[in-house]
Automatic annotation (TrEMBL):
The gene is rpl20. Coiled coil: none annotated. Binds directly to 23S ribosomal RNA and is necessary for the in vitro assembly process of the 50S ribosomal subunit. It is not involved in the protein synthesizing functions of that subunit. NCBIfam families: rplT_bact. Pfam families: Ribosomal_L20 (PF00453). Gene3D superfamilies: 6.10.160.10, Ribosomal protein L20. One of its GO terms (molecular function) is structural constituent of ribosome. Its main location: plastid. Signal peptide: none annotated. This is Large ribosomal subunit protein bL20c.
Amino acid sequence: MTRIKRGYIARNRRTKIRLFTSTFRGTHSRLTRTITQQKIKALVSAHRDRDRKKRDFRRLWISRINAVIRENKGKVYYSYSRLVYNLYKRQLLLNRKILAQIAILNRSCLYTISNEILK
């Protein structure tokens, strides 16, 4: 019997996976079995961290707003939670990203917003 060579489909699949993991170190970019494992692991981590990034940025924005609001030496003790509560009560829809940018770039504007809400 003559020798049957495998087709090109499996080789193409392996080279496609190998291209994905070509920048990985060691056997993670050389051996086919570990290449497939590392590709799955990388895709799972990327999917998980896309959601985590949103969470982390929201926490960062909240801490920035809170730090700037607490620095305000107004008449009353003021915090982030009271600011957001009063914003919703007045139906001013400013998201946390915009509030954080205002807090960093223009503190006096944030102070005026918080003072106008209290009135």
